[in-house]
Design a protein that fits this description.
By secondary structure, this protein is mainly beta. The chain contains one helix and ten strands. The chain has a domain of about 120 residues.
């Protein structure tokens, strides 16, 4: 008979342990997050643009790439655009100039998220070829690339391939031009 009460106590003790470890109901709560928008800016200044060519006696076009690193931390989704303008390519002495329509972007630039950034790559609505405006005084800048609304968020690099047209009648020399590349809010 000593065994039966012992089993009863053991069963009652086990039932107490199970009841004490049964989960209790939790109360509802709320959480909030305040996220402040940052800025829209070029992550780094655009590099100097350099074309190199050897005259061949026939018309030719030389190219170079220009990576433009854009940082959109605004969190607004309003989009942005890259504008360009330039002065005419000119030598110093004797003075020779290239055409004001000498520089173009023949095809749409490529876009890629920067390393370490999860971005929404820009969707571009500009039509190509695009001619970089040029004049003895730089004319009004025009859109070379844009990020339509709800695209272009985060850090990303837009890489344009620039073409410089050189007619066979081009004078040899060291030509220079002043370019302005700007990042503007809105598509």
């Amino acid at each position: 008979m000593h065994r039966k009460p012992r089993l009863a106590i053991t069963a009652a003790g086990l039932l107490s342990v199970v009841l004490m470890s049964w989960p209790t109901a939790a109360g509802a709560t709320s959480a909030s997050a305040t996220i402040t928008g940052g800025s829209l800016a070029l992550v780094s200044a655009p590099a100097s643009i350099a074309f190199t060519a050897t005259l061949t006696g026939v018309d030719q076009t030389v190219t170079t790439t220009e990576p433009i690193n854009v940082g959109d931390a605004t969190g607004s989704g309003t989009g942005w655009n890259i504008t360009t303008t330039s002065t005419t390519f000119t030598t110093s002495s004797p003075v020779h100039t290239l055409s004001t329509s000498a520089t173009t972007v023949a095809t749409a630039p490529t876009v890629a998220c920067d390393s370490g950034a999860t971005c929404t790559t820009a969707t571009n609505a500009i039509t190509y070829p695009y001619s970089v405006p040029a004049g003895s005084t730089a004319p009004t800048a025009t859109k070379m690339f844009d990020a339509t609304a709800n695209t272009g968020m985060g850090d990303q690099t837009v890489t344009a391939t620039l073409s410089l047209a050189l007619p066979a009648s081009t004078y040899a020399g060291s030509y220079s031009s002043t370019w302005t590349i700007s990042l503007v809010s809105g598509p």
